[in-house]
Amino acid sequence: MSRPRSPSPSRETFVLGPHVVPRIWVGLWQLSSSAWGTASTTKIHDGMAKHAKLGYDAFDMADHYGAAESLFGGFRKTLPSTTTVFGATKWCVFRQIDPSRTVVECAVRDRIERMNTQSVDLLQFHWQDYSDMGYLTALRILQDLQKEGLVSAVGLCNFDAVHTNEICAQFGSGFIVSNQVQFSLIDTRPLHGMADICERHNVKLLAYGTLCGGFLADKWLQQPEPEPYTGSLTPSQRKYLDVILKAWGNWTLFQTLLVVLRTIGDRHGGRSIANIAIRWVLDHPFVGAVLIGNDTIILSSKRRFILGTHKALDWEFPNIWTTISMLTDSH
Ligand SMILES: NC(=O)c1ccc[n+]([C@@H]2O[C@H](COP(=O)([O-])OP(=O)(O)OC[C@H]3O[C@@H](n4cnc5c(N)ncnc54)[C@H](OP(=O)(O)O)[C@@H]3O)[C@@H](O)[C@H]2O)c1
Predict the structure, then answer these.
(1) Number of domains, the chain
(2) What is the pLDDT of residues 64-94, one digit of tens each?
(3) CA dist., res. 225 & res. 150, Å (int)
(4) CB distance 288 to 281 below 8 Å
(5) Does residue 104 sit within a domain?
(6) Which CATH number does the domain housing residue 301 bear?
(7) What's the whole-model pTM score?
(8) 214 alpha carbon to ligand 1 midpoint, in Å?
(9) Could you tell me the distance, in angstroms and rounded to a whole number, from the CA of residue 29 to the centre of ligand 1?
């Protein structure tokens, strides 16, 4: 079973199955490509330690995020036995498989080994093809493995509202603790269906894309529309630029949104655009945590991440959301 965690110095926390975890997690997708920079294992462990010390002790990873799971497992080994960190990973099934007991157990044991633990703190399950109902078999086996102590909590990853509801109804509330999906000021899809399902079954949303790969930040204020392939955009920024321009609106409207967020930040203690964008997501009751992609671990400069996110916490000013909703709803 999972080890009890030391009290976190993070100011905002929430209950996720048997765990109490911070409301901002460190996302490790950014370890998967040199586009975000490279660093030695020692530097990455040092970066993780600095974040954990300040309460950012929950890390989100996957087996396809480069060496993220092994790096996290190595980091765990460096910690004294009294210090614990929270490791969420994923089992993403992108192609057709037979989810037998052996296949599912192997997937879990691989992660246990890489992450240097007795029990995966949170295993987030993704199943690509809903027409193949094997996801229900896989989840039944994950439930058995949870009872046997190999998994501490089970979540979903990128499941739609219909199938999240189906699974929670079939397995009973309490088994699935979370669903990881995209949620931001420019991608509000979870508000239409998913929010109700989460509240009905006490599933917490774990949000990614909240900063749109870094576009929802002061450095993009009054900047011209970037070229997707000729500049220095990261792989995620290319993806999010597409969301801004094709699914959401256009660059001019996006600049208007940044101006509104800047004005709100100025009126509230000089908070950054990123602070406001994170707070907007956190203020939805069905949201458990926001996952912030952390290239600064690689660059070994914790300053921007920590200062940037700290000021998104412990701050409530709900009526500002009316202004933002008016803007986002009007496009
Ligand atoms: N399940 C999925 O399908 C899925 C998909 C994507 C991501 N994720 C998870 O979510 C995590 C977050 O990834 P994301 O795509 O959502 O990225 P994101 O958090 O929207 O953006 C990350 C980028 O924001 C910028 N940034 C970070 N802290 C900042 C701060 N305090 N102020 C201003 N800018 C800041 C940095 O970019 P610059 O350095 O360029 O400014 C960083 O690379 C991933 O690591 C992963 O764990 C999951």
Answers:
(1) 1
(2) 999 999 999 999 999 998 889 999 999 999 9
(3) 48
(4) no
(5) yes
(6) 3.20.20.100
(7) 0.92
(8) 6
(9) 8
